[in-house]
């Protein structure tokens, strides 16, 4: 199939030609221009969300569907618009990952969606918070690989345990916050 590069037993696509790779931002190989693009888009999304009518209506439909209905907002239409836009951002994120870092697709890439949901929850669904949560999760994953290879030899799954604890703490804090309001 399409995820079967010639000469390998792994389920992966052939490597993308170097001329299509995203340029590096600095000499560090994992820090490419796509990371800056993703952060800029998150900031732009935050600005749209906080200071435009489109953002206001989207927040109303997402947070208070009953209010949106009372204001005669086409809630279903807005929900489909946001699913379409979210899918576009997810596709762009996948393209940035493939063109900027790994340069081929593997069957193991399926877990990024679940990681994205966790990042969004920890970032409290705020685009700027999501940037911070994504950086935190990235440091955890990268650090876990480094510690696993070091003399400490801790398993990489420790990063997953830390992420799970952070998510649980965030959910508990959100529950406490909802109870108070």
From TrEMBL:
One of its GO terms (molecular function) is transmembrane transporter activity. The keyword Iron-sulfur does not apply. One of its GO terms (cellular component) is plasma membrane. It is found in: Cell membrane. The keyword Membrane applies. Keywords: Cell membrane, Membrane, Transmembrane, Transmembrane helix. The chain crosses the membrane at residues 31-48, 80-100, 112-140, 161-178. It is a multi-pass membrane protein. This is Sugar ABC transporter, permease protein. It comes from mine drainage metagenome.
């Amino acid at each position: 199939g399409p995820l079967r590069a010639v000469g390998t037993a792994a389920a992966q696509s052939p490597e993308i030609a170097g001329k299509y790779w995203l340029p590096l931002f600095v000499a560090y190989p994992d820090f490419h221009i796509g990371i800056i693009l993703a952060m800029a888009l998150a900031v732009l999304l935050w600005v749209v969300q906080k200071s435009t009518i489109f953002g206001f209506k989207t927040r109303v439909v997402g947070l208070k569907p009953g209010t949106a209905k009372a204001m005669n907002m086409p809630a279903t239409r807005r929900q489909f618009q946001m699913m379409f836009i979210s899918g576009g951002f997810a596709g762009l994120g996948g393209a940035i990952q493939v063109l900027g870092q790994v340069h081929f697709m593997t069957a193991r890439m399926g877990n990024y969606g679940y990681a994205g949901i966790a990042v969004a929850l920890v970032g409290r669904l705020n685009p700027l918070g999501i940037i911070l949560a994504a950086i935190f999760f990235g440091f955890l994953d990268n650090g876990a690989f480094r510690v696993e290879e070091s003399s400490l030899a801790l398993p990489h799954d420790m990063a997953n345990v830390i992420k799970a604890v952070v998510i649980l703490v965030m959910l508990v804090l959100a529950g406490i916050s909802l109870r108070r309001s």
